Amino acid sequence: MNTLPENNVAPSCNIELKARLSSLDAARQVANSLVDTRLPDQHQIDTYFHCQEGRLKLREIVGERAELIAYRRPNESGPKASNYFVLPVEQPERFKEALATTLGIRSRVEKTREIYLHQNVRIHLDRVVELGDFLEFEAVLSDQHAATESQQLVDRLRQRFSITDNDLLEASYGEMIESPERLASR
Prior knowledge:
Blueprint: E1 12-20, H1 24-34, E2 37-49, E3 55-61, E4 65-72, E5 80-88, H2 92-102, E6 105-118, E7 121-128, E8 132-140, H3 147-160, H4 173-178
Antiparallel strand pairs: 1-5, 1-8, 2-3, 2-6, 3-4, 4-5, 6-7, 7-8
């Protein structure tokens, strides 16, 4: 069901693509050749909670901030639309305990994320504990960046990074931690 909440607040939307990397260094070289802006690296801890629909996680960006991220994204390989809400969290430990008590924890993901900005696309190079190295594109949609042009940009970036169909992933990192078989070998 894709209905809006009662208050009619629309989620943000982006086009996402996630892929396994065979070489983080090679991806870093491509990202550096494209970058409009390079943001500082982040050490992120994502705690995924059980929920009826979509996904819900508390992201703690070590030394910076915490945010609750609620999103819906289909589990399919290749570029896909993701609708999401990001809310700042002032007391992450208390908040995490409250959600763990009421909803239960599904999984926990720890990663180091390099962040590159190219036009309206956030390029993430992720080193995920227990899973390996990944690339993620998030083309943020807005009045200035329509879905069609963003999809085309993601397709062009996929070519630049030499991402094959076998590299593409369907699931979130949280789901991969839960079920390692989702990392189907290439």
